[in-house]
From TrEMBL, chain A:
SUPFAM superfamilies: Thiamin diphosphate-binding fold (THDP-binding). It comes from the Bacteria. Keywords: Oxidoreductase. CDD domains: TPP_OGFOR. This is 2-oxoglutarate ferredoxin oxidoreductase subunit beta. The keyword Protein transport does not apply. Residues 50-197 form the Thiamine pyrophosphate enzyme TPP-binding domain.
Automatic annotation (TrEMBL), chain B:
Keywords: Oxidoreductase. It comes from Pseudovibrio japonicus. NCBIfam families: OAFO_sf. InterPro entries: 2-oxoacid/accept_OxRdtase_asu, Pyruvate:ferred/Flavod_OxRd, Pyrv/ketoisovalerate_OxRed_cat, Pyrv_Fd/Flavodoxin_OxRdtase_N, Pyrv_flavodox_OxRed_cen, THDP-binding, Transketo_C/PFOR_II. Residues 34-221 form the Pyruvate/ketoisovalerate oxidoreductase catalytic domain. Residues 274-437 form the Pyruvate flavodoxin/ferredoxin oxidoreductase pyrimidine binding domain. Pfam families: POR, POR_N. CDD domains: TPP_PYR_PFOR_IOR-alpha_like (cd07034). This is 2-oxoglutarate ferredoxin oxidoreductase subunit alpha.
């Protein structure tokens, strides 16, 4: 058992994100859940790439590796494969994880190595001063898109599903009550857990998620899904999701303006892949709620364990290794040269 | 020019000779990609090595997986040099060419010496095949081959005839023609077929019918030599065993040797080996070989790309393993940013570059040594990195160990420059005895003690920083690609600190320079008129040419660099003892440029970038031109 408090997970360095940055809230939630779940400082490794969010390891009192742009999943994979006992966290952003590092994220998700990948999505490049990112909304004006972007934005959860991710969750930076349990579940998951955090950049994209966060309006624009629970949302819990009758896909229904009750709504099944696809996409169109919570979770073969099959059960001593190597070198044809042989 | 045999007193040194077909024979098998040429050549090489000969081989195969049959670009060849004396190279010329089709004859006839022997499968010389190969008339019938000794044989029909009783389809029977050919060539060398039969039995133990057929074909070819009436100018070769050092031997190619050496190096450092890689020619066999060492504890990881391959290796090193990655030039280019990270974070890491022709995708299956600049200088920032290179396949094992030793002792990434020739060529290799002091363990001491622990504190002798791996209590710290404050390792943008850290990174190489052995001459005197200086796989042709010239009384020394960066501290003094220094390189003068810039001395550069190693006669001519023809 450990007596560590959340503050014990904070390093001695001053946190240098902009005042009001959503990253502070994520850091706080992380400290809290690590303390609560009994994590140990020496067994926890935080790996990041480049960008504002990737500064996070410096503010952790654990082991940390601030690597290069986009490559954190690959470096984390090597560390975890070398030492499966480590609790490995990757912190990345929408530019780091989905643009320059998209390939590594794709393959990390498909392999399902036991680690957590937390993608802080602020829909902007912050550290390079405000260019549009792969998740920026279409039409967004930035220094690199003065006429507005013409690119289709990428939906991280949909990307994760496409990559074959077995744990996909989404939260808002400041909603600790949603984010905390998600981070805990991600840590407990035996595989790669992908967590998208909608995070506010106070300088270059301030307020982009305000309609989701707003105490009054927010509940109409978001739905928090929970396994085995009917999918209800709205300020007065007066709306819900059901399968489109006679069709394919989800439909938003009002519980007030119809005879429908909660019993008529779809019950969230986090192991249902097709449902996860629909939930990930929801919110892309006007009037749809953005889905928060654990969208998809399915136990599958964990890469680390699978890839260790065939390794010696116990580490070999130096002598054992050298003698096995000697045998391997002599497995094919060998011959002697000596007084007799010559 | 006269020739004589040198009788060396040193046991390690084999004599050199200039008497082909007496002291050494250069054979080349050539045929279609599907003819089993590589296997035939490898078997003869193994058999000759086992007999006790010195051998050097050169597999030369197309980049296409299955090129259209009968075409010139679909020809696969395997050259080998079998000697009683030191061979070191596969040979400039061919004494005997085995051509299994017209395209093979057309492609390799030029390399056959005057009056050389041509063994030809006449069955393959159909009108269509002759035309496809680009001959205007049948070379077996016109006078174009009159300056060669001819052994035209119906190899395909003879093979079919020999296998008639087996019940094999004629298509399957024809596929055994390479074994029939090998049988004949073994007869030509006065060797028995026993070794090869044993190998066939093992190789086809699940298919006894095929094993039997191959052995029958092999024996039939051998018997053919014994009983047939061969032309009077075809005589057999009698190459005695070479006076090799006593010991147990096997044959090995450079990639295998490197893979085993890296494992041995990690083991002697008391570490686990982690190999992260992405498939690329000609480095992929490193991955294949290490993957087979899983039950010995080696972890191999096929990553999604070159970048992930090195990054995973860096992650594994951070977590306490010996991270290794391997690739070829284009892949190394992709890894460059991550190499910088390993330099900044001062983690042990071995990067193996099996060089090929460049730039860009270049010549994937052809050898070159043109990534020296890339290795030494190819990064952003002042980013020093030690670079070492093997000279030949049999040295790769020891290079793998030295790479592990330097990387862990000094806490640095290190690059090994192998090349396509070394990687694929095989040579006899004296198996290591791990009781030998040369293989003394060098166990790494990881940091454990929190008292006064500073992640960027440097050992004044080795300039290594402490290696504190995740999982170690009370040593938690953060590292990364941003400049580090000396000592604490915290982020620092301070200019004075950056100056200090830049010096520390440079001092790491100075520490390595002090620890490597002084540069010696490979052959010849330590001063004189001419030094021929080389590195990597130009070792073989330079060695042979320099030793032969020395026997003729010429003042020529061979200097071979294993440590390319940092350079051995005594190199400048050594080179200043020669009137002229000539550097033949398989690039456009890279080492020459490095030496000029580092030592301010004049060296002469000779470049050969033809996708093959230098020929001995090319080096011999360089020596002759430099010294004059007088002996």
């Amino acid at each position: 058992m450990t007596d560590l408090k959340p503050k014990d997970f904070a390093s001695s360095l001053d946190v240098r994100w902009c005042p009001g940055c959503g990253d502070y809230a994520v850091l706080k939630s992380l400290h809290k859940i690590l303390a609560e779940s009994g994590a140990r400082l020496e067994d926890t490794l935080c790996v990041s790439g480049i960008g504002c969010s990737s500064r996070l390891p410096y503010y952790m009192a654990t082991y940390g590796f601030h690597t290069i742009h986009g490559r954190a999943p690959a470096i984390a994979s090597g560390a975890k494969l070398a030492n499966p006992e480590l609790d490995v966290w990757v912190f990345t952003g929408d530019g780091d994880g989905l643009s320059i590092g998209g390939n590594h994220l794709l393959h990390a998700l498909r392999r399902n190595l036991d680690m957590q990948i937390v993608l802080l999505n602020n829909q902007i490049y912050g550290l390079t001063k405000g260019q549009y990112s792969p998740t920026s909304q279409k039409g967004m004006r930035t220094p690199s898109s003065p006429g507005g972007t013409v690119e289709m934005p990428l939906n991280p959860a949909r990307f994760a599903i496409g990559a074959g991710s077995k744990f996909i969750a989404r939260s808002i930076d400041t909603q600790a009550k949603v984010l905390g349990p998600i981070l805990e579940a991600a840590r407990a998951f035996d595989g790669t857990a992908f967590v998208e955090v909608l995070q506010n950049c106070v300088i270059f994209n301030d307020g982009v998620f305000d309609h989701l966060k707003d105490k009054k309006q927010g509940p109409d624009h978001t739905i928090l899904v929970e396994h085995s629970k009917p999918m209800v949302f709205g300020v007065n819990r007066n709306k819900g999701l059901r399968v489109k009758p006679g069709g394919f896909g989800l439909e938003i229904v009002s519980l007030e303006e119809s005879s429908l009750t909660e019993a008529d709504l779809l019950v969230h099944d986090e192991t249902n892949h097709a449902l996860a696809v629909a939930l990930a996409e929801l919110g892309e169109n006007e009037g749809e709620p953005t889905v928060l919570g654990i969208l998809f979770r399915e136990q599958a073969t964990e890469f680390g364990k699978a890839s260790r099959i065939g390794l010696p059960e116990k580490p070999l001593s130096m002598d054992e290794k050298l003698s096995r190597l000697s045998a391997a070198l002599r497995a094919g044809e060998t011959w002697g040269v000596g007084e007799d042989a010559a | 020019m006269h020739s004589r045999l040198e009788h060396s007193t040193a046991k390690r040194e084999l004599p050199v000779s200039q008497q082909p077909e007496v002291d050494y024979v250069r054979v080349r098998f050539a045929g279609d990609s599907g003819d089993g040429i590589q296997m035939t050549g490898t078997r003869l090489a193994e058999s000759a090595a086992r007999f006790g000969n010195d051998i050097a081989t050169f597999p030369d195969f197309p980049a296409d997986i299955r090129a259209p049959s009968g075409t010139i670009y679909g020809v696969s060849a395997y050259s080998l040099n079998i000697g009683h004396t030191e061979v070191s190279t596969f040979g400039d010329e061919t004494d005997a060419l085995v051509a299994l089709n017209p395209a093979a004859l057309r492609k390799y006839l030029e390399g056959v010496k005057q009056n050389g022997l041509l063994i030809i499968d006449t069955d393959a010389f159909t009108e269509r095949a002759i035309t496809k190969a680009g001959f205007s008339s049948n070379p077996l019938e016109d006078a174009s081959l009159s300056s060669f000794r001819m052994l035209p044989l119906e190899i395909t029909s003879n093979t079919e005839k020999a296998l008639k009783e087996t019940g094999l389809s004629s298509k399957d029977a024809r596929r055994c023609k390479n074994m029939w050919t090998l049988g004949l060539v073994l007869w030509l060398f006065e060797r028995s077929t026993a070794d090869v039969e044993l190998w066939i039995d093992q190789k086809f133990h699940k298919k006894p019918d095929l094993a039997k057929a191959n052995i029958m074909a092999l024996q039939a070819g051998h018997l053919y030599g014994e009983v047939a009436d061969l032309p009077p100018d075809v005589s057999r070769y009698r190459i005695q065993p070479a006076p090799l050092m006593e010991g147990e031997y096997r044959s090995i190619n450079g990639n295998e040797g490197m893979a085993y050496g890296l494992y041995a190096g990690a083991t002697l450092a008391d570490l686990e080996l982690f190999y992260g890689s992405y498939p690329i020619t000609p480095a992929s066999p490193l991955l294949h070989t290490i993957a087979k060492l899983k039950e010995l504890g080696a972890i191999s990881f096929q990553a999604e790309d070159e970048i992930a391959a090195i990054c995973a290796a860096i992650g594994a090193s951070y977590a306490g393993h010996l991270g290794v990655t391997g690739s070829s030039g284009p892949g190394i280019a992709l890894k460059t940013e991550a190499i910088g990270l390993a330099i900044m974070t001062e983690l042990p890491l071995v990067i193996v570059n099996v060089q090929r022709g460049g730039p860009s995708t270049g010549l994937p299956t052809k050898t070159e040594q043109s990534d020296l600049f890339q290795a030494i200088w190819g990064r952003n920032g002042d980013a020093p990195l030690p670079v070492i290179a093997p000279a030949h396949p049999a040295e790769c094992f020891d290079i793998g160990i030295e790479a592990a030793k330097l990387a862990t002792k000094h806490m640095t990434p290190l690059m090994v420059l192998s090349d396509g020739y070394i990687a694929n060529a095989s040579a006899p290799w004296k198996l290591p005895d791990f009781g030998d002091p040369a293989y003394a363990p060098f166990p790494v001491k990881k940091a454990k003690d929190p008292v006064n622990f500073l992640p960027y504190d440097h050992d004044p002798d080795t300039m290594a920083r402490p290696w504190a791996v995740p999982g170690t209590a009370e040593l938690m710290h953060r590292i990364g690609g941003l400049e580090k404050q000396a000592g604490s390792g915290n982020i620092s943008y301070d200019g004075e600190n950056h100056q200090l850290m830049t010096q520390i990174r440079a001092q790491k190489l100075e520490a390595i320079a002090k620890s490597i052995p002084p540069q010696q001459v490979e052959s010849g005197q330590t001063t004189g008129k001419l030094a021929v200086l080389g590195w990597g796989s130009s070792w073989g042709p330079i060695r042979v040419a320099a030793r032969r010239a020395e026997l003729e009384g010429k003042s020529v020394s061979h200097i071979h660099l294993r440590h390319l960066w940092p350079l051995p501290p005594n190199l400048q003094k050594l080179l200043s003892g020669f009137d002229r220094v000539i550097i033949p390189e398989m690039n456009n003068g890279q080492l020459a440029t490095v030496l000029r810039s580092q030592m301010g001395i004049e060296v002469e550069s000779i470049s050969c970038v033809k996708g093959r190693p230098f020929l001995v006669r090319e080096i011999a001519k360089i020596i002759e031109d430099a010294l004059g023809a007088t002996s």
